[in-house]
C-alpha cells in the first residue's frame, strides 16, 4: 500500500506543478489583457477564453489534491456523532460513492470529448476536445486521489 501511495503522491507532485502553471498563466494573461486594453487600447480577443480554459483545468487539479489531503469542505454533523471507528467507516463509504460518481464522469467525459473533437473554440481556434479533456482527466485524478484517501483511512493515518 505504501508503494501505491508513493506513486499517487508522485503523480500529485506533477499535478501541483500543472496547477501552479495554470494559475500563473491565468494571472499573466489577465494582466496582459488589462495592460493591452487600457494602456495600448488594443484588447486581446483570446485572453478571456484562455483564462477560462486554464481555470477549468485548475479547478480539477485543485479538487483532486483536496480529495487526497481531506481538505474539501464538508458537513461534519453526522460523523461527529459517531465513534472513531464509525467515523472512519463512514468516510470510506463516502469516498467509495465518490469513486462511483467520478467513474461515471470519467466515462461520460470521454464521450463528450469525442463528440466535440471537430469543433473549434471561437477565439483561440483550438479543438474543443482540449478544454473538454479536463473532465475525464479531472475525474481520473479524483478517482486516484480518492483511492489514496481510502488507503490512508484503512492504514489509520487520518485522525480528523
Automatic annotation (TrEMBL):
GO BP terms, alphabetized: C4-dicarboxylate transport
Transmembrane segments: 17-40, 52-69, 89-110, 130-154
Domain Tripartite ATP-independent periplasmic transporters DctQ component: 26-155
Main subcellular localisation: membrane
UniProt cross-references to InterPro entries, sorted A to Z: DctQ, TRAP_DctQ
Signal peptide: none
Localization per record: Cell inner membrane
Annotated membrane topology: Multi-pass membrane protein
Keyword Repressor attributed: no
Pfam families with a match to the protein in the record: DctQ
Gene Ontology CC terms: plasma membrane
UniProt keyword annotations, A-Z: Cell inner membrane, Cell membrane, Membrane, Transmembrane, Transmembrane helix, Transport
Gene Ontology MF, one: transmembrane transporter activity
Family affiliation: Belongs to the TRAP transporter small permease family.
Record-given protein name: TRAP transporter small permease
Organism expressing this protein natively: Lysinibacillus telephonicus
Lineage: Bacteria, Bacillati, Bacillota, Bacilli, Bacillales
Amino acid at each position: 500500500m505504501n508503494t501505491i501511495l508513493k506513486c499517487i503522491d508522485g503523480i500529485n507532485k506533477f499535478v501541483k506543478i500543472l496547477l501552479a502553471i495554470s494559475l500563473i498563466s491565468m494571472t499573466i494573461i489577465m494582466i496582459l489583457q488589462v495592460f493591452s486594453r487600457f494602456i495600448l487600447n488594443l484588447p486581446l480577443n483570446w485572453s478571456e477564453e484562455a483564462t477560462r480554459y486554464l481555470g477549468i483545468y485548475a479547478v480539477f487539479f485543485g479538487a483532486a489534491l483536496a480529495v487526497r489531503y481531506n481538505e474539501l469542505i464538508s458537513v461534519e454533523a453526522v460523523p461527529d456523532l459517531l465513534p472513531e471507528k464509525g467515523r472512519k467507516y463512514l468516510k470510506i463509504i463516502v469516498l467509495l460513492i465518490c469513486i462511483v460518481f467520478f467513474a461515471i464522469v470519467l466515462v461520460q467525459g470521454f464521450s463528450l470529448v469525442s463528440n466535440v473533437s471537430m469543433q473549434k473554440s471561437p477565439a483561440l481556434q483550438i479543438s474543443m476536445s482540449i478544454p473538454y479533456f479536463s473532465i475525464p482527466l479531472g475525474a481520473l485524478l479524483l478517482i486516484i486521489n480518492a483511492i489514496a484517501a481510502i488507503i490512508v483511512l484503512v492504514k489509520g493515518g487520518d485522525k480528523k
